[in-house]
Request: fold
Amino acid sequence: MNYEERIKELLKYKPHLKIIDNKLYIEDIPVEEISKEYGTPCFVYSKGRIVQNYNRFLNAFKKLYKNVEIRYAMKANSNPHILKLLLNLNSGIDAVSVNEIKLALSVGFKPEKIIYTGVNRTEEELEFAVKNNILINIDSLSELKKVIKICEKNNLEADISFRFNPEIDVKTHKHIATGLKESKFGLHEREAYIAYKIAREYKFLKIRGIHMHIGSQITSVEPFEKASKKLLEFAGKITRELNINLDIIDFGGGLGIKYKADQNIITPEDLARCLINNFLEASEKYGFENVKILLEPGRYIVGDSSILITEVTTIKITPYKKFIGVNAGFNILIRPVLYEAYHEVIVANRVFSNSYEKYDVVGYLCESGDILAKDRILPKVFEGDLLAFLDTGAYCSIMSSNYNLRERAVEVMVECEKSWEIRRRETFEDIVRYFNI
Ligand code: LLP
Reply:
């Protein structure tokens, strides 16, 4: 596909992005205008798109089974303004650290709407969750031991669930597959069985459910199909053999989004059909009753809601390559470097053109690996042009750093013709604040 076909195809799936008079708009604002007002680099989020994604995901499941709730995986993007928006939509939270729990509580999420899924947690961290009545997805026998100790020491009860490792190979980047045989996450079947058996012996442990999360950016139904069947079979086994009544089955997150025009992806409806059908079948077989299904989407909710605007500072032509140098690097957008991820690039101030060139879009960091887009055919680009990287709502801003003492990007929310800052631009003083100088 050439650039024009690529962009036209991709934008069919992103109704919050439009091209008017050959310029890129997000909701009803030209990207050029946003860059003038807030500067670059700048993450811009469409409020409408986040709401749309949340509703579509939830409704896909609700149509098939009423008792379903979302626990948004806030690791994807924990900007408190985005969390507030999701709170107002009645979402819950999947948190992975005490700080995430604290932020969720301070934004207004009730403890019963927060779950705590983590790995290698300390006694202090688990104690914080127990004391705040947060449901813990226990990841190991070691964590179970710690929770028992905490309850005995403080004379407290704890709501627990266990993370089950279904040993499924998901076809995604190796860094984001989490339910493999070799993964560090979760309890394998034998250990999980032992964990439930032990937990059953302690009255102060309220065994609520079972959890899995097999990976991220999953684009086919097959791994969900296989993993959910294994999980449900195991849930049936402990219901029958250990007489444990689960009231929560948590299928985790992982649904992929369309980063590339020619990429096939599955929809929330496909995912819902697979998980709910398997669940209903298992319910009949094992007699599950009044079970609440939890889902932990992160990327799907926020991923495609945002673009990153950067400015072209340098055009460099060497005997071998044409480089576009922008005022951002992997400190702002690490996904291409860390996961070989593809983010589409649009020339925001002149979307289509008559002449095209092949470029590497490179960052401002002093590292040769600082390549944000490789061998891309783009309209002929000039210094001062604006490049928009698409689909930067999940795992972008939150994974940014101050490497090379560069400031993190400002973040802006857009609703129709209105825009406002949701994270101010960092300054040198912000960066050095924590040094003892
Ligand atoms: N639940 C648990 C327990 C998780 O570990 C994750 C993501 C999610 C839910 C949400 O998964 P999602 O729906 O967003 O796929 N930084 C990587 C992704 C890491 C995902 C980590 N866990 C990236 O940029 O692709």
Notes: Residues 3-46+303-433 form a domain with the Lyase, Ornithine Decarboxylase; Chain A, domain 1 fold (CATH 2.40.37.10). Residues 172 and 319 are 36 Å apart (CA to CA).
